[in-house]
Amino acid sequence: MPVTDVQHDLDALTLTITADFAAAPERVWEVYADPRQLERVWGPPTYPATFVDHELAPGGRMNYYMTSPEGQRFYGYWDVTDVTRPDGFRFRDGFALDETFAPNTSLPESQADYTFAATDTGTRATFTTSYTSADDLQKVLDMGVVEGSSLAINQVDDLLAS
Q1: Structural domains of the chain ordered from first start
Q2: For the whole prediction, is pTM greater than 0.90?
């Protein structure tokens, strides 16, 4: 499995997931740069994602929804703030109310920093998410973000191998 470490720190207000992939950083980058590839790995296997908008560039917006096995849609967005190809990117990650992708202010918004570093065997990806309060971090932990994110990230290996 690609996920090798998961750390959450309520004092630092961060969740960090580390994964190792047997592919070069440029190839891992392409997973996130191509909306059709990203749809195959964003979200747990039983909640496939659909990216409605995808602009991986500073100031870009990425709107998506995940569909539950029962057909219920869960909406989210990324507001991209920084891109350094193929080393990584940063974005504000939020939950949206509905298909308008207006922010759902009752759920936490976070700052995500995804980095891809070359290793002897491929790429070490570090996914760090920062929250504005311990309550916000605890809320997403209680929602199952560690389990869901780990399942999603572990799907990347199959995509890289195909």
Answers
A1: 3-120+128-151 (3.30.530.20)
A2: yes
